[in-house]
Write a structure and sequence with these properties.
It comes from Cupriavidus oxalaticus. This is PadR family transcripitonal regulator. Keywords: Membrane, Transmembrane, Transmembrane helix. InterPro entries: Tscrpt_reg_PadR_N, WH-like_DNA-bd_sf, WH_DNA-bd_sf. With about 110 residues, the chain is mostly helical. Helices cover about 60% and strands about 10% of the residues. It has four helices and two strands. Strands 1-2 form a two-stranded antiparallel ribbon. Helix 1 crosses helix 4 and helix 2 crosses helix 3. The longest helix has 21 residues.
Length: about 110
């Protein structure tokens, strides 16, 4: 379960990074490392390939840089939806805890 959750979170991070700046595989791996993900280029490539196949990222060759990954319109929509889910989870995690005699909301 933890591995699946981290995989989903890594997807959101990669989409966010690709929104901010077109990035190479190495740049994306470094960004993920900075946020505590234990990854290397070899583990990031399959994630990028999957995100491309799903239509969320596209790659282009840039002179002097190499292949960079950037967000597609579909990727922007997916990122927006993911951010809404994360925001809702954050609100729930930081909401006041009910007392034992207070009924829970559904």
């Amino acid at each position: 379960m933890k591995r699946q959750f981290l995989g989903l979170l890594a997807r959101v991070y990669v989409l966010q990074f690709a929104l901010e700046v077109p990035a190479t595989v190495a740049m994306l791996a470094d960004m993920l490392l900075q946020y505590g993900f234990q990854v290397d280029i070899g583990t990031v490539r399959p994630l990028l390939r999957t995100l491309q196949m799903e239509g969320y990222l596209e790659s282009v060759l840039r002179d002097g840089i190499g292949r960079v990954y950037q967000l597609t319109e579909r990727g922007r929509e997916e990122l927006a939806a993911s951010r809404q889910h994360i925001d809702e989870l954050h609100r729930r995690l930081h909401a006041e805890l009910p007392t034992p005699d207070t009924p829970r909301e559904a």
